[in-house]
Structure prediction request, 361 residues.
Amino acid sequence: MTRTLRSAIALAGAAVLSLGVVATSATALGAGSERQDVKIGLLLPESKTTRYEKFDRPYIEQKIKELAPDAQIDYYNAAESATTQQQQVNTALAKGDKVLILDAVDAKSIQSSVQKAHDAGVKVVAYDRLAQGPVDAYVSYDNHKVGELQGKALLAALGDKAKSGEIVMHNGSPTDPNAAEFKAGAHSVLDGKVKIGKEYDTPNWDPNNANQQMSGAISSLGKDKIVGVYSANDGLAAGIATALKAAGINVPLTGQDAQLDAIQRLLIGTQTITVEKPYKPEADIAATMAVNLAEGKKLSSDLVPTTVASDGDRKVAARLLDPVVVNKDNIKGTVVKDGLYTVQEICTPTYAAACKDAGLE
Prediction:
């Protein structure tokens, strides 16, 4: 072999090796770029309800990072302002987020923002509340069933007193589509079996509003006429319980969300039940939906086994989970078992005796 031919072969081999290195580097860069391109905006509605900062946000962020370690997560809390949330959607789009996990403050007013995201090719996962507009996926609990469970529990607690007086109903915020479902579910059970003396929708799920509403109902109906209270969630129940205590009334009271203060009220008998909607399964599903959509994957039928109606005839791929009733007797087998709270968190000195009576030791 001539010297010239050997040099040519060496140069050719070097070129092939160089191309292989470049190709390998490009492949690695591409894979890294895909991971970095998982950009998700997480938009939660408020922080007054303890669940959002204590459970929803950390669970969602943890699951996203588990599925996509290099994901970019941009977090926003609207502090109960629909206008703020619309501005936050604009900010998320400007940052280049590819998927939004959206728990709407106002399901109707956010519609234009959802449409804007859709027009920009950004996917929207409706979380807990079904926002209007071209949403790509939805995860929540069966909210009509939540209302049914609350209504049945209230009837069971009333027993033969169901028709001996009147109940007061405190529904949630009129801007929250879930509140309408809770309300419908409760009415489907209670109508015809109790007399509803007063019924309120409570703006912004505000406990202070619920407290004022309950105080007004007591003044209007008379404390001896009230035999029970339907409260759509535990935040409202806190304000209601304060008004009832001030008037010297102790009657069955419902709730929802399994807040720590509600669990403690169950122990001392100032609240009858709450409804637990375990946060982690819902958060994990939302995160999984978001990562799959960010990576351009189609959502499997296991992840979204059903559909829900939105904006009339629009069908949204959905996953609806089953809620659980919590009462004084099953605290350990529900919220403690599910990791929401430890016995130590629940059984502070104020509640030590009640915890002992309930077998929480």
